[in-house]
User: Fold this.
Amino acid sequence: MSDKPTRILQAAARLIARRGVRGLRVEQVAAEAKVSTALIYYHYSDRTGLLRRTLEFINERAVHYTDAAFDADADPLAQLSQMLRLELQDDAEVRENSAAWGELRATAVFDAELREQLAAATARWVADLAGLIDGAKAAGQVATGIDSAAAAERLTAQVEGLSMRWLSGSTTLERARALLAQAVALELGTGRAG
Assistant:
C-alpha cells in the first residue's frame, strides 16, 4: 500500500479524470483515498494546493511511463516516436492521466494559477521533444531547417487532441496511433510513419 500523500494524489487524479475539476471537493478526495480531510489540508493547505500538487503528480506519472522511450541504443527519431506513442496506451494509468490532464487543461482556461503551472509543464514536454528533434537533425534523420521547438509544440498538441478523441470514443486507439505516426512523418519530413 502506498503512503497516504500518494494515496491522496492518486484519488485526486482518479476523481478529476472521472468527474472533472470544477466540482471536485476535498471531502470527495478524502473519501476516495480513505483519509481524513484534515490530513489533506495538512499536506496540501487547501483545494488549490491539492490541485497544483495533483498536476505535478500526473506529470511525474507521465514521465515515468514515457521514460521507456529513452533507450540509449535507440536513435533520436525512434525515441521521439516511442515517447509520443506511449501517451496513447490502453493502460488504466495512462487513460486516467490523459483524462485528468485534459480536465486540468480545460479548467486552466478559467484559473490563472493552474494555467501558469500547466504552461510550464507543457513547455518542459515540448523542450524534451525539441531536444530529440535536434538529435534527429544531428543524426541526419530529419532536415536541418525544421524549427524543432515549433514542430515539438505541434506534435504535443496533436497527441493531446488525439488522446481526447480516443478517450471520448470519437476515434479508435488504432486510428489515433496511425494518425500520430503520420503526423510525425509529415511534421519531420521523414517519409516513414513512425
In short: The longest helix spans residues 112-138. The mean pLDDT is 92.
